[in-house]
Design goal:
The structure holds two protein chains of two kinds.
Chain A: E1 27-33, E2 38-39, H1 47-55, E3 65-67, E4 70-75, E5 81-84, E6 90-94, E7 98-104, H2 108-115, E8 124-129, E9 133-139, E10 142-144, E11 146-147, E12 150-152, E13 168-174, E14 183-187, E15 202-208, E16 215-222, E17 227-228, H3 229-232, E18 243-247, E19 253-254, E20 258-262, E21 265-269, E22 277-282, H4 285-290, E23 296-298, E24 301-304
Parallel strand pairs in A: 15-23
Antiparallel strand pairs in A: 1-3, 1-8, 2-10, 4-7, 5-6, 7-13, 8-9, 8-11, 9-10, 9-14, 12-13, 15-16, 16-17, 16-21, 18-19, 18-22, 20-21, 22-24
Chain B: E1 3-4, H1 6-12, H2 14-24, H3 30-37, H4 43-47
The chains are: A mainly beta, B mainly alpha.
Chain lengths: ~300, ~50
């Protein structure tokens, strides 16, 4: 390039159209995805398998988190910022970010509080439209999540007793380029599945049900609904291999001699009297799936066993 | 009926296991279950 020359290239783009047009419908859900998560339409595994496996990944940092059933959107996207000139004319300085606030009802306060843990974190999302098209950012022929400038779940809005129910919302702010020039989309209807089939995991609390120095007694309670997995999966959750006991004082393993389920209570015995405080863990997601307990993840809990 | 982890129970030994499980499962005749799983060797068998 020589001096006094400008790198002034013309951009041309053909405007012919084929038989099909992609016109995104309203957004009915999204997947929160890790930074490095990508969907490969040419991969060995189907898109459904890729999503399903990611939703049930044992490692929370590599998992995707589906949110379904958005019921409305409030579009607060920024207007383009313009400059007007003294001699006339306008130029666009900045076209402004998308600022979309989706409302959901299913899951209510329970889901809202779970999602609020992501507030102000670095989050990427893949959107789901009403026709089952999932879309995000195209990177090297793969579909990645759209990096958000802001992910925010505000406090729920109160019903005034007259018109509305309480409102639960998810706010996404992001740059336009990701779903315009850089968009990648996959039509899941054409692949024969509905993205709603990809469910998020429910969190399970291990609740003390009268433990003492000879046994841990607990109820595995799922989600806000309070479903007792020991009642629903009585014949599966009593597998010895699904449980781990640890001495809270030194982290040593406590051998398990029996596991039983009766009246919705799981009873676990060690090979001796138990330490005064015992940490109980239920198996990881994939191990639960392998015995037919699908869609749950339990957090370890420490029990007084004295 | 509990699921038994026989490897662990065998290491515990019958006496200790019976004593422990008596507290947790008072209606369970664990001594009988243990003997069915690990039949005791009679003196006559030993002599043979």
């Amino acid at each position: 390039m020589s001096i006094n020359s400008l790198n002034c290239t013309d951009n041309f783009a053909n405007t012919g159209i084929g038989k099909c047009s992609f016109i995104p419908k309203h957004i009915v859900g999204e997947f929160i995805v890790p930074d490095d998560f990508e969907l490969d339409a040419d991969g060995v595994k189907s898109i459904k398998e890729q999503l399903q496996e990611a939703a049930e990944n044992d490692n929370p940092s590599e998992r995707i988190y589906p949110i379904h059933n958005f019921v409305e959107v409030e579009d607060n996207s920024e207007d383009p910022s313009e400059s007007t000139f003294g001699y006339g004319g306008i130029s666009i300085n900045n076209e402004g970010n998308y600022d979309l606030q989706f409302r959901f009802m299913k899951g209510g306060l329970c889901l809202s509080n779970q999602l609020r843990q992501y507030n102000n974190n670095s989050v990427r999302v893949i959107f789901i439209d009403a026709d089952g098209v999932i879309f995000g950012q195209r990177v090297d022929d793969k579909l990645k999540g759209v990096p958000l400038e802001l992910f925010f779940v505000p406090k729920f809005t109160i019903s005034d007793g007259d018109s509305e129910q309480a409102g639960f919302h998810v706010r996404n702010v992001f740059k336009p380029k990701y779903i315009n020039e850089q968009i990648a989309f996959i039509d899941t209807q054409a692949l024969g599945f509905d993205p709603e089939e990809i469910k998020g995991l429910e969190e399970v609390r291990l609740v003390d049900a009268g433990s003492d120095d000879t046994s841990v007694k607990l109820k595995p309670i799922a989600g806000c609904g309070g479903l007792n997995l020991a009642e629903v999966y009585e014949n599966d959750i009593d597998e010895v291999s699904l449980w781990t006991l640890t001495d809270a004082s030194d982290g040593s393993n406590v051998s398990i001699s029996t596991v039983s389920v009766s009246d919705g209570v799981v009873t676990i015995t060690g090979d001796n009297t138990l330490p005064s405080r015992t940490i109980v863990r239920l198996a990881k997601v994939s191990d639960l799936v392998s015995v037919g307990i699908i869609g749950y993840e339990a957090k370890p809990n420490t029990f007084k066993t004295e | 009926m509990p699921n038994f982890n026989w490897d662990v129970i065998q290491k515990m030994g019958k006496t200790k296991a019976v004593k422990l499980f008596k507290k947790v499962y008072p209606n369970l005749d664990f001594a009988k279950i243990y003997d069915e799983k690990f039949p005791p060797i009679s003196k006559s068998d030993e002599e043979e």
